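2 proteins. here.
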Amino acid sequence: MSDLPPRVSALQTDGPSWPAQARETRNRVQRKYFDTVERSRGLPVDTPYVRRHIDETLADGQFAPGAALLEIGAGLGKGTIPLVARGFDVTANDLSPVLLGRLQAAAPQPIRTIACDVVDIARYVDRQFDGAVGFFVLHHLVGFDDIFRALAGVLKPGARVAFCEPVAWNPLYYLQIAVTPTMSLAGEISLAAMRPGVILPAMERAGFIETASRRFGYFPPVMTNIRSGRRVERWLEHQPWFPFPHAFQVFSGRTAS
C-alpha cells in the first residue's frame, strides 16, 4: 500500500494501477475538456505537419499495408482518416462519443468506432489487432500500466504499437497551455510524464518488448506547413550542436511472439 495520502496517490501518472473511482473522475474531466470546446488542432486536415507525424509514427510502428490497427484517442479523426486513406483497417477508439460522432460525419467512408475508456477496450472488441497507434493521446491519459496491459490484451502475438507524443521537456508546450484559454494542465495532465523513463517501463511491465523512443521535429504547424520551414527544420535535425529539445517523439514496441 502507498504511504501517500489518498489524493496524492490518485494523482500519480506512472504508477502500476489507477483506482477505478479516480479514473471515473478523470474521465469526466476529460470529457468536459474535449466535448464542450471546439478545438481546431484536432480537425482532420491534410497538411505537411500532420503528414509528418503520421509518417514518423508508421515508420516506427513498421505496420504493413492493410494491417488491422486500433487507434486510441482518435478524437475528430486527425490521424484516423489519413490512416484509412493509406489502406489500413482502422478501428477508432475514444472516450468521447461526441468526438467520434464528429469523426464519422467528417469521414468520406464509414469507420468502425468504439466509445469507451481504453482500459475497457477488451469488452468491446471480438478480434485481435495487428497493431495499436495513437497521435497525441497518451499525455491526456493516466495509469499507463493499465493502458498498456489493456492494449496487450487485444493485440496479436508480435503486434506492434507506436504513439506520437509531445516531448515533456520542450518549454513551448507549457507556453502554449499558458496562453491558450481553452487549454489547461488538467486537460493535458500527463504532459510532464511524456518521457522514455516513464512510458517505456510501463510498456515493458505490460509485456511489450523492443521498446524504444525517438525524437524528431521542432516547429509548430505555421512553420512546418511552409516549404522553407520544413527545410530549416530538417537542417536543424542534422546539427549535433543545436541544443533546443525536439518537440515530438514516438514511443514504440511490440508484443512477444
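next one coming up
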Amino acid sequence: MKDPRVFMGVDPGVEGGLALVEEDGLSASVYPMPETQEEILLLVKEIAESDVVVLHCYLEKIPLVPEFVMRKKNPNFRRGQKGTAVLFENLGFLKACLSAFGFKVTQVSPVKWQRGMNCLTGGDKKVTRARAQQLFPSTRVYGKVTNKTADALLMAEYCRRVEGLTCAAA
C-alpha cells in the first residue's frame, strides 16, 4: 500500500496553486500553479506516480460572476479577458488531468470552502494566506505558503475535514 494518504486542493487560476494535506492534518505540501499545460500535466503525473495516495481532491469551482459585479465587492479585483480565459482553460485542463490519473474530484465553490475554513475573503488573497499560515506554520509545510498557494492549501484542509471521515471508513 502506498503511504502517506493525502487530500488535495487545487486553485486553477494563474495565480493559484495545488496543495496536499496529509490525512492526519499535521503536514502539507504546496505548489504554485505551473505556467503551461505541459507543466501542469507533469505536476499531476508526478503526484499520481509518487508514493502518496490521494484520497479526494477539491477543485475550486469558478463562479460565473461578471467582473463589474466583483469590482463592486472588491474595487481591487482585476481579472480581465485574458485572465478569465486562462482560468477557465486551466480549470478544464485540470479536471481532465486529475480524472485521467484516477483522482476523485469534487468541485467546490469559493464561498463554501471559505465559509468552512472561517475566512471569507471578498477576493482578498491576503486573508486566505494569513489563515493558511495560522493553520499550517512553516515548520509543517513543504514549500512556501504564498498568495498563490494559500487557497489550494485551505481547500485541501477543507477537503480533509469534510471527506476525512468518509475516507477513513472506506
